[in-house]
Design brief:
heterodimer, A: about 130 residues, alpha/beta, 6-stranded mixed β-sheet, 3 helices, B: about 190 residues, alpha+beta, 6-stranded antiparallel β-sheet, 6 helices
């Protein structure tokens, strides 16, 4: 059965939706737990297994307004795993942020410099954030 | 003990202090203080960039203190689980359009040298160099960071502030040192 996960956001952790059948994952909100690795453990385990399968396409919308430096490492690892996977050409990452959100925008730019295979779209909205 | 509130009230006003937290640090507690901080920054109607910079410095330094403070407080007065929480102090103030953040926590003497070296190095870098250094460090596995933890956290703080990182280390109890950090964030972007 296709994997499905939905986590409501908290003060410290983001909203997460994973729908394997639709080939879709989204993170929204904020992430600043000091031990963020444990929060993303299940997601990482699923993703690593999924990336080995023959999926048609996969889209990851990352629409986080703020994250701490521990989360940066987790996100970088997720993007690297996608970039190094065998079906990397079928993966699209939409890095969605607001035009005044310098921290998230710069982070997206820095990540993008190292990604060679997946499609990485930096989408800057006209919103407040 | 009764605290003379008028003196405190005047002192906080004279020192331009707008938010103080001192006590145990744990994840959900930090989330709660973060909510208060956000409301306080909303009240000041700051540019998005400034409030995000202040918030980021708050989160990174709270996380640093949570992970490395050597002074502990027991969870719940009658709790038998023996759970402990690290302690730290956070102060936010505002002078004119400039915010200042001061924090204090107890640390082990053995960590002083590496923290000091790390901050001294960061203080020699400009913003573009800090961005490059951050990028280099974020790619290292956690165990390989140049100083134990607080690897990216201090770099992130250095990237967001308008000053250098000021600090002091004062002898505390045996084997321990009190570490204070002082940074400013410009409200004019």
């Amino acid at each position: 059965m296709a994997y499905k996960l939905e986590l409501e956001k908290t003060d410290l952790t983001p909203y997460v939706l994973i729908d394997e059948e639709k080939g879709y994952m989204v993170f929204e909100g904020e992430s600043y737990h000091e031990n963020v690795i444990s929060f993303f453990k299940e997601i990482n385990e699923w993703l690593n297994a999924f990336l080995k399968t023959d999926f048609d396409s996969f889209t990851f919308d990352c629409e986080l307004k703020y994250f701490n430096s521990s989360t940066v490492k987790v996100l970088l690892n997720i993007l690297r795993d996608m970039d190094n996977s065998k079906n990397n050409k079928k993966i699209t990452v939409n890095w969605i942020t607001g035009k005044r959100n310098r921290i998230i925008t710069e982070c997206g730019e820095d990540f993008n410099e190292d990604l060679e295979n997946i499609t990485f779209n930096l989408i800057i909205k006209e919103t407040k954030y | 003990m009764i605290i003379d509130m008028i003196d405190w009230h005047r002192m906080l006003h004279d020192k331009r202090i707008t938010l103080i937290y001192s006590g145990p640090l744990w994840s959900e507690g930090i989330g709660g203080i973060a909510g208060t901080l956000k409301k306080r920054l909303e009240f000041d109607a700051l540019p998005m960039e400034t409030s995000q910079e202040v918030f980021s410095v708050f989160v990174e330094q709270m996380n640093n203190m949570l992970m490395y403070s050597a002074e502990k407080e027991q969870f719940g007065a009658t709790d038998k689980r023996q759970e402990e929480s690290p302690k730290g102090t956070f102060i936010l103030g505002k002078e004119g359009k400039t915010y200042f953040v001061q924090t204090g926590n107890v640390m082990k003497n053995a960590s002083v040298e590496s923290v000091k070296n790390k901050i001294d190095y960061l203080n020699t870098l400009n913003k573009e160099e800090l961005r490059k250094y951050y990028k280099k460090q974020m790619k290292l596995p956690s165990g390989n960071l140049e100083s134990k933890g607080a690897g990216l956290g201090f770099i992130e703080i250095a990237r967001r502030i308008s000053s250098k990182i000021k600090y002091s280390f004062v002898p505390y109890d045996e084997g321990l040192t009190f570490f204070s950090l002082y940074v400013t964030i410009s409200g004019e972007n």
